[in-house]
Amino acid sequence: MKIENITDVFFDLDHTLWDFDKNSSLTFQKIFQLNQIEVNISEFLSFYEPINLNYWKLYREEKIDKASLRFGRLNDAFLSINKVIKKEKIVKLSEDYITHLTSFNHLFENTIDVLEYLSVRYNLHIITNGFEEVQQKKLSQSNIDHYFKTVTNSEQVGVKKPNPIIFNYAIEVAKTNVKQSIMIGDNYEADILGAHNIGMDTIFFNISNHSNEQKIKQINNLIQLKTFL
């Protein structure tokens, strides 16, 4: 069922359009090889991925800073697989990770098709909690930056999703209003509840098929956006 009266569509970037897990995995393979770190990459990632998500939650809640996130997620992952890595090496790996992350720019299935479809019908925008110096590279190097009228980053605003300030800021920069806008993202807390809290409509990109009792619009493939928009 089509949603009426929408003029502006806001997307999250990581885990919604840009395939973070795939690109991150390839980056780790590259930097471990460069730094001669011998680990079982599958085992490492099985610990790193949930640890990373938890660190990002702490970061969203302003409980840790960027440096603590970058170091802590790697340090904890190595500890989890009983791999002893010196602090100086972890710092270097964390820097190398950011440097090389945008070497890989895999997008989710149907991303380009959907952006082509939506861009002739709506104004498209990004709202992201990712690091400012990395997010613009992801957009440009994956060749999707030209689809978006505005990009709102948490570092430029000073707060992170789900804080209402970042959503209101994005709405203002886009020169639109809440009732004509919709938010699409994979993080239920940051994207969906955050947008709902300012009265914004949402579509949950539930690619992991998390059970959710809330009666919200959701998809598990981006092509399904054509059902709603």
TrEMBL record:
Pfam families according to UniProt: HAD_2
Organism: Gaetbulibacter aquiaggeris
Signal peptide limits: none
Protein name: YjjG family noncanonical pyrimidine nucleotidase
NCBIfam families named among the record's database cross-references: HAD-SF-IA-v1, YjjG_YfnB
InterPro entries hit by this protein: HAD-like_sf, HAD-SF_hydro_IA, HAD-SF_hydro_IA_YjjG/PynA, HAD_2, HAD_sf, PGP-like_dom2, Pyrimidine_5'-ntase_YjjG
PANTHER family membership: PTHR47478, PYRIMIDINE 5'-NUCLEOTIDASE YJJG
